Amino acid sequence: MSKRVKIAGALAIALALVAATAVSVASARGRGRTTAAAAGTCELGNGIKHVIYVQFDNTHFRRDNPNVPSDLEQMPHLLNFIRGNGTLLTNDHTALISHTATGILTSLTGVYPDRMGQPVSNSFRYFKTDGTTRTGVSFAYWTAPLFDPAGSTTDTTPEMINENGKIAPAPWVPYTTGGCDFGAVATANTILENTAIDIPTVFGPGSPEAAEVASNRGQAFADFVGIGVHCARNSAICSTANNGRPDLLPDEPGGYNGYNGLFGAKNVDPVIKPGAAMTDLGGNVIQDASGHVGFPGFDGMEATVSLSWVAQMQEAGIPVTYAYVSDAHDDHGTAGNIHFAFGPGEDGYIQQLQNYDLAFQRFFDRLAADGINKSNTLFVFTVDEGDHFVGDQPTPAGCDGVNVRCNYTRVGEINGDLRRMIKTQFGDNTLFSVHSDDAPTVYVNGTAAQPIRDRTDAIVRNLERESAQLSWLNPYTGAVQPGYNGVNGTGITRALADPVEEKTLHMVTADPFRTPTFTLFADPDWFFFATGGATPALCATPDACAFIPPRTSQSFAWNHGDIQDEIASTWAAYVGPGVSHEGDVGSVWTDHTDLRPTMLTLLGLKDDYQTDGRAVTQILNENAVPVSLRVHHPSLERLGSTYKQLMASFGEFSMNTLTASTNALASGSSAGDTKYTSIERQIQSLTAQRNTLAAEIRTGLNDAQFNSVKLSENQIKTWTSAAQDIINASAALAASSS
């Protein structure tokens, strides 16, 4: 399960927070938009009449156990549909931090998290003006202010914040301004995510909807959260008679006035399915664990539920639908009321994947009966992030989950109290908090005079060195696991980044109060939290501060957020007009930012800002590629590939500088920090060079893809060579930093 937070100290899962607050838990180039099209005039490129985008939570193409078929292999109706009709990119990658919110929002926007505001998710810490920190939640409606479930906040920045400190451009705008209604099914921040701030943001604090929250929070959640439609201008679907509300985007670069939206199943369902309750693909009325009819919660969005809403929207004349499908490796019970973590090949996991496969069979059959198929529909399927499974080896040996089910003695992350472990090993009482994770972001308390400590502060540097040296008894192996011992080492700490490297990794936003003091990327078996209080207690025994929780209905065993390949590597699939029939393609390196420009290139649409990704022309038919791209096809593809390695969170440049950063932060002492100072200065210099060159390349690629600008062959080759030179310099720095 990916939409989750673990609360520091008590190890309470954020579902307690959810229950209390009804939470599911570079300047843009403003190209003036032409007059907006009216509803009913939806015109898309390449003969495409429908767009169906589905983003899974933690659903894998790669096998987590070599003997057990992968998630996609166990959904043959989906996998065969992709392989038989389109292209499956098997070498896709997420951004950092690699979590649900970050992965989905990067995919939706086509920009890295530093340009949309959510690099640390699914929640994050932020500094208050007194130097302490509070929790923010990544899931909130697009135009909401920063969402702190505990109430008031000293940080008044937008939840979705771009590089200019404004509300990030919204992903539905090219569709609605092109005359296409846009249906959103549980897709991060495009719908209302909570009742606490999203309902006041959209409906108003004195609205009947807000009154329902006060009187019946559970039903209000089912009524208004999770489902929505953003309409083209003058669309009847979002009329005032249907309780349409103004779709306000005050900071949209090209302006956005006169548009309405429908928010919540209570308003959407009567329009798309008049006179009848919404049912899943098996005919069951959709309701939450408490029997509230309507949106069942994000963990309740199994394939049969989410895909049913997609089909119903398409049948009601909403041609563009974006949907989220909950993960299959956790048992969420009745509409998401428990979180029991399965291991690969375990009976419940196999059964859920069979249910998902049946849902896709029904989905494709239903769409085909409606005339919605590969000949007129762009289908895009992808996933937010990968996972690392934490548990014992299965029994019996060689079990495959198909002929022989797998069983596990222990399943679950190693829960480590970072603050108490640091106190016990080093005697350090430094006040700090973390965003609990296997890649915990650390926030060292400041003061009212200086809320955010400088990265060179002696207290900060000491804590970074201690984090590098941290060693502890590993309860799975029964042996002491060492501290950082090199790039390919076996230590608890695998990498470290302070704000210098965090900027390189696209983790520094326009809101300085969200920037972590440093980030610790750990062994993926570990999940760190931090006890609060002025003075943490010593760990009387190793297992007092690092333990495997009992396997219960609140278990977690699938770690993400970190830098390991099984977490970073994802997949993306395209089927439809203009898409080549290539089957599996692993030779093209992509990341989440490439989804949007590839889709918009096929659809003949463009954003009112520059995307960070590039159109993956390798999977497009020649006649689907704009003429401005065809002119230098091979050269542009080489440039695009090199640009990825320069810019991507998991590209060569970022991983090289992360190696150098780790060696820098682990070095030195209170007596001297020469190595740290030198390496940090070089990372800053290389990142500045990277950003300057990347801005030029980004402008060139966006112009070629969306503005019919033909780039010169000389310019393309110059950019490619310059990008490779910077990558080579980062490799040299990594090699010399050890």
Please tell me about this protein's structure:
- By secondary structure, this protein is an alpha+beta fold.
- It is 31% helix and 14% strand.
- The protein is built from 20 helices and 27 strands.
- The strands form 8 sheets. A 10-stranded mixed sheet has the order 9-10-8-7-11-3-14-26-4-27. It has a 4-stranded antiparallel sheet with strand order 17-18-22-21. It has a 3-stranded mixed sheet with strand order 23-16-24.
- α18 (652-665) runs parallel beside α20 (713-737).
- The protein is globular.
Query: Outline, from the CA principal axes?
Result: globular
Percentage of β-strand residues: 5-15%
State the total count of DSSP E strands: 27
Number of helices: 20
Give the overall average pLDDT.
93
Distance between the termini: 37 Å
Question: What are the salient characteristics of this protein?
Answer:
738 residues; disordered N terminus; 31% helix; globular; 14% strand; four-stranded antiparallel beta sheet; 20 helices; ten-stranded mixed beta sheet; alpha+beta
